[in-house]
Every structure is written in C-alpha cells, then in structure tokens.
Amino acid sequence: MIRKAKGTRDFINEEVLKIEEVERVFKNAAKKYGFSEIKTPTFEKTSLFKRGVGESTDIVTKEMFNVISSANLKKYLDGNYDLNKNGLTLRPEGTAPVVRAFIENNLYATQLPVKLCYNVRCFRNERPQAGRFREFTQFGAEVFGSESPFTDAELIAMVDEIIKELSISDYEVLINSIGCKKCRSIFEKELLQFLETKLDKLCANCNDRYERNPLRVLDCKNEQCLCETKDHPDMLDFLCDECSEHFEELKRDLDLLGVQYKIDTSIVRGLDYYIRTSFEIKTNLLGAQSAICGGGRYDGLVKSLDGPELAGVGFGIGMDRLIMAADASGHFQFDNSRKGVLVINLGVDNKHSIEFLKELRNNAIYSQLDHLGRSLKSSMKYANKLNYKYVAILGEEEVKEGKVTLKNLDTSEQICKSREEVLEYIRSNDNE
Ligand code: HAM
C-alpha cells in the first residue's frame, strides 16, 4: 500500500470542522481589522525565497522543497537546464510571495497602507515531530506602507484576539527589537566577541550560525547553548535613538490596546528580512514546537525584491499549532445531536423513495437514500450509527396508499401520513 508522505496529514471529519472553525475566527478578525484576502501560487521561483527569506537561513539552505517537472529533470541531468535561473520551489512561508504579488500587481500605487491577509499551505523539509510538519498552513497578515509602531501593535493585538477567541489562555506574547541595519551591526560585533570565547561549548548548529548569522545563536534551544549564552549582550542596549523610540511606542500602543506582553531578547527570528520589531507567541500546550505565531517588521524587503522603498510588517500564525492549542484548551465542541432523514426503500420500486428524497432536499432537509439493499434491521442500525434523527420508510403498504412511515429515532414516535404531511411534520419539528 502506498502511504502518505512523511510529515503530511489527512484531515477527516472533525479535523476538517476544526479547520473551518479556526478559518472563520481568522477571517472575521482580519475583516474587522481591515484586511483583504490575497491568494498566491503554491510554487514560486526559487530565487524569490533565496532573495526574500535569505540565502543563509535554515529555510533556504536546508528546508525548501524544490520542484522540477519530469521533462526539465531530464534536461537538467543532460546539463541543459539552469536550476538557479529557472528553479521552482513550493512556498515555505507566506511573506515573500505576498511581497512579490504586491509589487508585481502595482498594489503600492493604491491607497496606503495596503493590508493583505492569507491562508496558505506551506512546505518545509523539516524533521517531523509533534506540531512540526512538512506540509502545514499559515494564516498571515502583511501591512505595507506604514512605519508607525501602532501598525505592529495592532497586528499583535489581532493575533491576541484570535488566540483568546479560541479559548487558549496558556500563552505569552514575546516582543523584542532587533534594531535596524545600523545599530544591529554594532551589536553583532559585540555579540561575536562574546560568542568567540564560547564556541567550543556551543553546538555544531550554533558554530555554523556564528559564521553565517550570529544573531540566530540566541535562538538555539539546546540546553547547553542556552546556559552558555545566557549572559549575552542585550540588543536593546544597542538600539539607536530611532529604533529605541519605535520600540517604546510599540510598548505604549500594546498597553493602550490591552495586550499583555513580555520583552524577550532571544526573539531574533529565523528569517533574514526583519528589522526592529520581532515577536512570537508561544504556548506551553504544545511541547517543543511552542511558537503559534511569529512576525515582525521588514522595512527593506519590498525594495530588495525590486519594489519601491516601502515599509512592511506582518505575522504568520501556524494554523495546525493553533488548532492543537485550541484543542488542548477544550475549545472545540461539536453538535452531536441527531440530524436528518434516512429514506429506506423496502422492496418496492425505488422511484417513490427517490421522489421523496428530492422533496426533502428541495426543502433543505439533510437526507440520504439507503440504496445498498439492506434489510430493515440493518438500515435502522445504520441510521442509528450515523446519528440520523428520522428514518422514512417506503414499503408496499406506504406506496399503495401514497404515504410514508416516519420514525423519530430520538423519541421512537412514529407517524404514517402523506408525503406532504410528513414533510410539513419534519419542517415544523426541525429548524436545521
Ligand atoms: P515563521 O516563524 O517561520 O515565520 O512561521 C510562522 C509560524 O508558522 C510559526 O510560528 C509556526 O506556528 C508555523 N510553522 C512554521 N513551520 C512550521 C512547521 N514545519 N509545521 C507547523 N507549523 C509551522 C514566517 O514564516 C514569516 N513569514 C512570518 C511573517 C509574516 N513575518 C512577517 N510577516
């Protein structure tokens, strides 16, 4: 048997209802906060992510799923296909594609700020574990054309609201500022000096990050690395006046919006585009993969992808983790009451049953015809298993008299009346 690929999942019955519920909560919040939805392709040019997310990031160096058609693979193997130029990649995150679409569709020429939200499948070749998948969904929101820290605060407030609405109370909003290019480079020099003395005690990944992106060492979850770097220099002490003012205003606006937060200088984010505000929302409900949401400001990204010089800020919520946290908080309660009508045809021409089924459906009544030729006993069993409220029986007697026998499986009450009367009876007893 061919099984699903590692790190992917099938969503069945209630799992789909949970997705629908969190989608509804996200969409309502996004609408309330003035976002309109954008849909971008599932795959993009590889170069978009290399340039957009950053050549040295884990996503680009290790985790991208690059796709190639069979025909191009043959060309590639024959040395006639330039992967650097033509390569395609399954979207590992939502921001770079939205920035690309924002530029390509000249959305910057409309009224600023432009506020876009999305609900997209993402793909990363990470080691699967609880809460970490190779295919997952991000709910995201991006705002273009506002440098104001109020925009950052408002985005954080929106996620805070979504999380609360899903009954999750065990979570923390962690904020930080990683400064601008200018003040960060001074900090990075200081950090490199600090790390240099610790390199032999840090993990291989941190040694690699020390070379490529020293800030990311602060994001390592390894116990020993955490212990060795706990007295690291603090980026907040290095912020220039503008970045410091931006951060102070962000905190004030979060207070005004009633968002509880903590400052956490280890929130440095794994993607290269961030400046100033970086934030994550973490929960204890999920084990190691504790981040439900990550985001921040990326003022240089639009320009670096050949757009105009425009500010940007946004977040990505991991929908799968959001559902897991909502589940662990007992949020999902589905209606298990009996519903609908199972029409049972008992040994007569099923023409009458089909006609009755059609009338039921015309009246928006959830109904099915049991057409697998079961005995009455097994049909009743089936109706009970599937939680039908009624069975409608059409046998020889009923057909002869133009009637239907209707049994309420909740109350065992039974009537035998004309089709119109039975329809009316169901309609007046049920509003579903
Ligand atoms: P990110 O932190 O890489 O940021 O991902 C955002 C969220 O996606 C994470 O907090 C997590 O909940 C979820 N996530 C990431 N990887 C996985 C995975 N393998 N399995 C399940 N969930 C996962 C970004 O992607 C940025 N684009 C966010 C952003 C938007 N920044 C500004 N605008």
What can you see in these coordinates?
The structure is a single chain. With 432 residues, the chain is α+β, with helices and mostly antiparallel strands. The protein contains 17 helices and 16 strands. The protein has helices spanning 14-32, 46-53, 58-63, 70-77, 83-86, 95-104, 149-165, 181-196, 204-212, 223-228, 241-256, 301-304, 319-328, 351-362, 376-385, 396-401, 419-429, and strands spanning 36-37, 43-45, 66-67, 88-90, 114-123, 135-144, 171-177, 262-263, 275-283, 291-297, 312-318, 341-345, 367-370, 390-394, 403-408, 414-418. The strands form three sheets. The protein has an eight-stranded mixed beta sheet with strand order 1-5-6-11-10-9-7-8. Helix 1 runs antiparallel to helix 7 (149-165). The radius of gyration is 28 Å and the shape is elongated. Histidyl-adenosine monophosphate (HAM) binds at residues 93-95, 124, 126, 132-133, 136, 138, 140, 142, 270-271, 291-296, 314-316, 318, 320-321.
